[in-house]
Amino acid sequence: MGKVCPDHGEFEVYLWPDAERYRWFSDFAFPTVAREPQTDRKEDCPHDCGLCPGHKRRITLPEIEVTWRCNLDCPVCFMFDGDRPPDPSLEQVRRMFETIRAYDGPDVPVQITGGEPTVKADLPEILRIGRETGFEVMELNTNGLAIGWDIECLRNFAEAGLTNVYLQFDGLDPEATRKLRGRDVLATKMQAIENCREEGIPVILAVTIVQGVNETEIGEIVRFAMHNLDVIHGVALQPAFVSGRFDVPNPRHLSVGDVARLLSDQSDGRILPSDIWPVGCIHPLCSGSTYLVGEGDNYEPFTRGLDEASYRSNFDETSPQGSVFLDVVSEMSPSGELPQGLPLLIMEYMDAWTMDLERARECNLAVTVMDGTAIPFCVYHLTDIHGKRLYPHGGKGANGRDRH
Q1: Arithmetic mean of pLDDT over the chain
Q2: pLDDT given for residue 396 in this prediction
Q3: CA distances from 227 to 147, 170, 184, 322, 379 (A)
Q4: What does the H/E/C string look like for 219-235?
Q5: What whole-number distance in Å separates Cα of residue 170 and Cα of residue 221?
Q6: Furthest-apart CA pair in the chain: how many Å?
Q7: CA-CA distance, 232 to 204, in Å (whole number)?
Q8: What is d(CA 294, CA 226) in angstroms, rounded to the nearest whole number?
Q9: Phi, psi of 277 (to 5 degrees)
């Protein structure tokens, strides 16, 4: 992608390894369904978020940040900012839940995130507020330390309304965890998975992929998940994007196409690059996915036998990224039951180098900030090379209408 800056001149950014597949992904668009805007269009994208009338898609996965504090000091952290505001009050959290319900409906899953949400003593109360507001699915985005150290902590969250855990997981090599998290916390993360297994809490493994650190672990992570389907209900592979703090040398952008090739190489061809398909709830270049039908080492990607017409006719526009093919598989199953398997998702976030505002306008993943407005994920976390944010933590709320 070519870019021109009045201060820094012209430059090019690498996008994909395969032009033909890139074009196929780009053209695989689904009709967009917008939701009611909350802000006016004044300075244009990306300065009017809230969402503004220019946003093209509904939000199917809203996030609520409940703190900007953390119990780790990770070398790679897109949330990092020297300015760390006070935690939102419970009343502000309630307003965020209520606004999500008003604009996106009560049936969307809500991800509770941060910072590290488990550092908050009142996290169970926040989960109860979500349940009282009418949300049935509340996912906890966590590094897993608290729930690995103390199973009673996990039980308290589950009793308050937690439905599943989105677990930061860098691989099965302690060295990768040390490089990305600043210390070896792999054993605690593994214990967190065991505690979730004991309590019947589904886990999604969220893998930050950094070339030169853990890109060779993708195949083993998928294999680990396929051998633990009783507790691991999905894998989200997330190539790192350069926002916030990035203290790993020589970062190289990895695309959906790159990760698809790594999957193919590391699965001995069980998963092919052509098995990864665009996800219809968002811009086609933002995510790729499949559903691995089977268990252990005996599985096959569902998309290998899928045709475009069947995908389009069975697609549910309300499905979030990780559920798209799970829902398609369920819809197409002759028995009406979902066969055993694993949703596999690649999520390619954007930073200042790869930012494409057309993609941003089709984002379905948004952070709901303290005044109730919603900011697309990649826009909200956009920083310059010094970590200065376009939108401060909690949002700016400068030009919105009545939010709630």
Answers
A1: 93
A2: 53
A3: 22, 17, 23, 19, 36
A4: HHHHHHHHCCCCCEEEE
A5: 9
A6: 60
A7: 6
A8: 8
A9: -115, 155
Q: Quick check: helix, strand or coil at residue 238?
A: strand
Contact 119, 48 (CB under 8 A): no
- Is the Cβ–Cβ distance between 313 and 54 less than 8 Å? no
Which residue reads 């900007």 in tokens? 68
How many DSSP H helices and E strands does the chain contain? 13, 16
Omega before 123 cis (within 30°)? no
Q: Where are the beta strands (DSSP E) in 6-107?
A: 9-12, 61-65, 76-77
pTM comes to 0.95
68: its two tokens: 């900007």
How far apart CA 353 and CA 14 sit, in angstroms, is 9
Task: Please report, in angstroms and rounded to a whole number, the separation of the first and last CA atoms in the chain.
Answer: 39
Kindly state the tokens that stand for 2. Answer: 């070519």
Tokens 């589904």 sit at which residue? Answer: 202
Task: Provide the residue type at 138 as one letter.
Answer: M
The answer for residues whose C-beta is within 8 angstroms of residue 16's C-beta and 6 or more apart is 22, 255, 256, 257, 258
* Domains of the chain as residue ranges with CATH: 18-380 (3.20.20.70)
Average pLDDT of the residues in 12-23: 94
Alpha helices in 227-266 (DSSP H): 256-266
Q: Scanning the structure block, which residue is given the tokens 């829902």?
A: 327
Backbone torsions φ then ψ of 392, nearest 5 degrees: -65, 160
CB neighbours of 375 closer than 8 A, spacing ≥ 6? 49, 50, 51, 366, 367, 369, 391, 395
| Type and span of the H or E element at 180 | helix 174-181
Residue 392: strand, helix, or coil: coil
* Residue 163 token pair: 């439905």
Which pLDDT belongs to residue 403? 35
Q: At 56, which amino acid appears?
A: K
The band of 395, judged by pLDDT with boundaries at 50, 70 and 90, is: confident
Q: Is the pLDDT of residue 401 over 50?
A: no
Q: Is the CB of residue 72 less than 8 Å from the CB of residue 387?
A: no
